[in-house]
Amino acid sequence: xxxxxxxxxxxxxxxxxxxxxxxxxxxxxxxxxxxxxxxxxxxxxxxxxxxxxxxxxxxxxxxxxxxxxxxxxxxxxxxxxxxxxxxxxxxxxxxxxxxxxxxxxxxxxxxxxxxxxxxxxxxxxxxxxxxxxxxxxxxxxxxxxxxxxxxxxxxxxxxxxxxxxxxxxxxxxxxxxxxxxxxxxxxxxxxxxxxxxxxxxxxxxxxxxxxxxxxxxxxxxxxxxxxxxxxxxxxxxxxxxxxxxxxxxxxxxxxxxxxxxxxxxxxxxxxxxxxxxxxxxxxxxxxxxxxxxxxxxxxxxxxxxxxxxxxxxxxxxxxxxxxxxxxxxxxxxxxxxxxxxxxxxxxxxxxxxxxxxxxxxxxxxxxxxxxxxxxxxxxxxxxxxxxxxxxxxxxxxxxxxxxxxxxxxxxxxxxxxxxxxxxxxxxxxxxxxxxxxxxxxxxxxxxxxxxxxxxxxxxxxxxxxxxxxxxxxxxxxxxxxxxxxxxxxxxxxxxxxxxxxxxxxxxxxxxxxxxxxxxxxxxxxxxxxxxxxxxxxxxxxxxxxxxxxxxxxxxxxxxxxxxxxxxxxxxxxxxxxxxxxxxxxxxxxxxxxxxxxxxxxxxxxxxxxxxxxxxxxxxxxxxxxxxxxxxxxxxxxxxxxxxxxxxxxxxxxxxxxxxxxxxxxxxxxxxxxxxxxxxxxxxxxxxxxxxxxxxxxxxxxxxxxxxxxxxxxxxxxxxxxxxxxx
Length: 726
Fold this sequence. Notes:
726 residues; coiled coil; 6-stranded mixed β-sheet; single chain; elongated; alpha/beta
């Protein structure tokens, strides 16, 4: 059986550096500055560039270093945040895929303009910026205010990133269907009549961010005591490197219990670990001897300290004992009131308490002396005396009668405890004799003893399995056992007990007054829990014996389907089908990806897996298609375009095509096209449109005059923009 492949855990060591460019090429020109402002990544460059000059994570973090006198504060943007190790404290201008923090966006744009080398007092170039589908007017208002008020931009054009990607691959706006899956959400946009029909667009609240979060949650459930902290960036890397879209999700899940299929499906991810080397003292005998001598001296000092403390306590106890004895002897020389005052000052209420404390202290002093001299003697068990129990009541006073009653109860309790103790000692002796006899038979006839023990164990297993089968059958209403139980209950209900009439006319229920009434319950519930407990105890005892003396014995849990835990599917999903030592640091630092590889991307098609009350991507596409006439449906189904970072998942296009073909009418044509570069095509499409359609680009621009006249949230609509409902 082939072992699964082992991969190294993803890391962020290869973060590219963001270079700084010269502004000379664009200085004095009116070339557009294209910004693909995504919630996860930002890509920026001039429209004349073949590819965006800047590509980095759209995040900002503040760095604080140095002491109080040499404090240095810096603002890190993009990939510099990874280099500075400030991912945990980073923040974004986006919330839920839309801009909500203009200050953070301003830091990001300052970084972009500086890296592009723009050194003028304002931005002299028109800006073409992408935005998400159905971007709120308030978010667009924040961006427009920043561009016009902060950078004095001459004009700005807004467009939907998914539609720009569609334009980059098609070069036109023929009828089609755009499926875009980004960082925060996935969207489906129909294209018809030369523009995106946004009134029919739909959004699924599941994207790349949720993929990594769900992967991380599944791994936390699977490895609750994993020794490493798996970061969100590592989880994202696991999704990109190892996840794929299953073409038969349920079929693959059913095949996972097969060890061969599981090994082929599993990818083992190895995280860093430290090997614990065992150092041998023989390598350096001088150092070993020095360490041993230090331990001896330390032990000797501890022993001397303990002896001194015991001696001090003993002296203190002896002094207290002498003081208490002198107090007791002073009774004969002092007056009664003076003696009682001294007694109370010493902390005793009565003379009996003083005598009891003297006896206790004497015993403690004697034990301490014997322990220090090494002649500790076993304590003799004192048999309590009850002198008043056998005295007739006529010879006793009222107080003595009460004391006699108390002594009688104490004697009964003591005798009961003695009987229990003797019974336990006898039982222990019988068990020791039986164990000795068992051991003698094992030594005299090992093979026969082993066979006999195996047979005993099998008999117990048969009883346990029979009990389990009977309980399972009782849950089946059509089984013979369940029907017999129902007949017993019916016979109980049919029996008419003699009814006693009360004076008021009401009947009196006498069920239970006769012991035979309860026989039906004994018939219904024949299983005795005590028998089950005895069988479990005896089974454990036999298992312990066989584990020691039978090299071929394998422990079997009858309550787990008769399989050891290492053979269960849960164990094999987490640790594989091969025998491994879970105590090894390398094994503890491994993650087995199998069911997670297909379960995480499956949410795109079955959102209910994570509790989303939404339709999957293919169902959404089918629902949108039904809103158009059959001719338009046919054209759109022939041109289904998928884009966005999540479209790079393996088999994504094949799964969409197969599921959509199953929903379309018979012999319908379905064609799925993946973007040439799902990550960069929104920028490429925007740059291509700005260069190839200058007139349309100029008409679609929001100028400063329009911004001041129409309002800060005004939008000039075009074929690839959002729509404004007024």
